[in-house]
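Thread: quick sanity check before group meeting

JM: Hey all, I'm pulling together slides for Thursday and realized we never actually wrote out the predicted structure for the chain we discussed last week. Dropping the sequence here so it's in one place. If anyone has concerns about the input, flag it before I start.
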Amino acid sequence: MPKLSVIVPFYNVQQFAPDTLRSLRLNARKDFEFILVDDHSKDGTPAILERAAEDLSDVAQVRHIRHEKNGGLATARNTGLDAAQGEYLTFLDGDDWLAPGYLAELVAAIEDLGCDFVRTDHVQATARARTVHRVPIGRRWEAFDPRAAILPADRTTSVDYAYAWAGAYHRRLLDRGLLHFTDGLRTAEDRPWIWKLHREAQSFAVISLLGVFYRRGVASSLTQIGDVRQLDFIRAFDQVIEETAQDPDADKLLPKAVRTYCAIIAHHLADESKWEPAVAKQLRTMSAAAIKRMPQDALGDVLETMDMHRSSKLRRLRRRVTTAKAAA
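JM (edit): ok, ran it. Output follows.
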C-alpha cells in the first residue's frame, strides 16, 4: 500500500501543468502515488501528462487516467479516489503547485496526530503577488471534534475554508464514503464535501504548514467565467441544506448553512456584470427559488443579522417570490 495518494485532475492547463508536475517530482517518494487524471483536455495537456507519467515513474508510483469525455472537477477527483491505494490521500489541482518537501511534512503531521483529517494554510498566487490564507481556527496541532468547528453561525469557520487540497485525509474516511464529491458538480463541489466531513468524521486538526500554492486569476478558470456552469453553486448548497436538515443537531447547524448560502447568493448577485445576460436572468430566478426552499425561520434570522447591503438584495428576492405566489 502506498503511504500517500495525490489526486491531480487536469483540464486544458498546458501553460501551468509543467509547474505542477515539476513540484510533484520535488515531493516524490517511492511510497507516494501520483494519480494524474486528464479530464478530456483538448489542448497540449494530454501529451504533457504522457511524458510526465513516464518521467515520474522513476521516483514514485504513478497512475495516468484519461476521461473519454469531460466531467468536471468533482467527477475527475472521484475517478482519482476510485483508483487510489494510499493509506492517506490528498488533492492538488492541475494549475497549482507544491513547495519542495511539503508532502512528506504533511504525512508526518497526520500520522503524528492520528486523526481522520488535517487542514493546512495555503499561499494564494495572483500573478507575481503571494498572500497567505489561513484556516480560520486558532486551535492548532491538536486533534478535536470536527463538529465543533462548524459554528458559530455569524463567523467564518472551518466549513467556509472548503479547499479540498488544503489538507490530508485518512483512508478510513474513503472507506466510510466521506471523501467522494457530488458527481457532475461544476463549481462549489467542495462545499457539500467539507460540510459532510465536519458532520460525520470523528477527529481532525489544523496544522501550521504552508506548501500549497493556489493560482488565482487564471483566465480559463471557471471562477473567472460567467456561464451557466457557475450556477451549480445552487445545487451544491441545496445539498448542504438538505443533508444538514437531517442531522441530529439540525436546529443548531442550519442557521450557519443558511447564512453561508445567502452570502454566496448575495455575492453572485453583486457581480452580475460578469454573467452572460441570459445566465444573469437565470441566476436571479434560481436564487429566488432557492430562498423559497430554505428553512424560513432560519432565513428570517439571517436576514435580520446580515449587513444591510446584502440583506436588501435577498429581501428583494424574497418579496419577488411572495409577489409571484400572490399573483398565481
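AS: nice. The first strand starts at residue 4 and ends at 10. The first helix runs from residue 17 to 25.
JM: adding both to the slides.
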